[in-house]
Amino acid sequence: MRLLFFLLALTLLAMTIPAGASAQQLVLSERADTTSIAIYRAPDRASGQPIDRRYPRGYALITETRTINVPQGEAKIRFEGVSEGMYPESAIISGLPNGVIEKNRDARLLSPAGLVDAYLRRRVTLERTDPATGVVRMQEAILRTGSQGGVVIESDEGVEALRCSGLPERLLFDAVPKDLSPRPSLSVLTQSDRAVRATLQLTYLAEGFDWDANYIVEASPGAGMGEAGGTDAADTARQLSLFAWLTVANGGDQTFPDAQLLAVAGTPNKERRGAQPRSPPVRLDLQCYPDDSTSDVPLRYGYAAPAPPPPPPVAASAMRMTAESITVTGARSAVPVAAIQAEQEDLGDLKLYRVPEPITIAAKAQKQVAMIVQPIVDYRPLYLGSFTQSDLCCGDGTPRPLDLTLRALNERETGLGLPLPQGQVAVYEPGDYGPLLVGQTRLADKAVGQEVELGLGPRADVQMQISAPDDAHPRRFAILMTNALARPVDVELSVPFELRRGKGFAKVDGVPTWQGSIAANSERRLSFEIRKPAE
Known about the structure:
This protein is mainly beta and 535 residues long. The chain is 6% helix and 45% strand.
């Protein structure tokens, strides 16, 4: 009788299953056929501030093309090798016959922490090695806690924390759980009326990327930064070579081989993400609470690590080597030679830089590609100074140096005429022993037509000295400017106050500014009077 009811139940179940239906099938896409990565700079990174190498704060728009076999019926498609910084809510998948039913970000990765959490309250094998005898001992144990805050195991010997016994030990697991993926993955559910081979396009946003421009500027000899060289006329333009690296940072653990790389300059409107569920930890957090007998055991390893071997002896030939026998040959120019150069394109109000050949963007690494190569750019060296609020009352007559600045107009006629993204700048000048670094500065985004200024800091050869006003004229000041160089220099001195009188002043960006030159090994005096607030 029972057998009859069982057969009847099977018959009714078969009648409820549609013809051609089958259990959910798993389709694994291990890698992308082609990858395109468009990287956006960190929105909150200040102009010229370097990339955070450990945690890049920018993001990327990643587009992957993958070819898979879609089976008939319902299937789960797992895309492996996506960026672990993926925004799963931004993922768009096209090319499936009937679209996507459901998508899930598989956050459970195959890692020490993932294995421990997967085997929580399950039986594992504990392997211990006696460092004195080398005897390996196996015993069964049960995991009582997860991967964070110390791993507690229970065996026949009692309850203890992993790697806190003073013996080398490790956990052995019977198998890898099916829901643990060796790489970050995105899974989608789909259904197809027939089996088909499909080419899919997966597009998503991911954090953990950033890019920057790193400029190398080499000024011509006698460019105004040294004592020698130069011309006699202070208003003569000089020339420099400008080169920029496109520096890309990938802070994730995922490598993207042969990817099409693009960098987007500008600030697109990107809304802040809401609170997201946190992914399970990847790293195993082991903690011990040693008593008097184990307090001298290193917590990282759980046993006393052997002392490192002594360094190898210095070779006799190296000991006989003298300074006279060493020859250093360096490049005679600081500007590199570009083998591949990124091409600039317009992207609405933004600028896009496309690398013409596929390159590999390695995990936890940076990549540099030539971005801008301008071999001849006209510029003028200037020495800038400013009359400040403290000089009104507290000037003590102490000389102070003026700041050397290299100024160029971003126009085609001067050798530029192209957008300059923000970045860091290193300025070199040729010397008898090769290029010499003379200063470092930062550059903000500069559009075509704007002035480009590279401030190289104070220079003691050109100074200004403010004389304190007398009681009869409390708002009348005199400035003595000195030039200790063997060539004339151009000077700009700004006074951010309303002037009653002052010869040679003109307003620059609304600020009264004196512009002129100082002859070689000479000085020049300047006087002006500031208006009272009530005037």
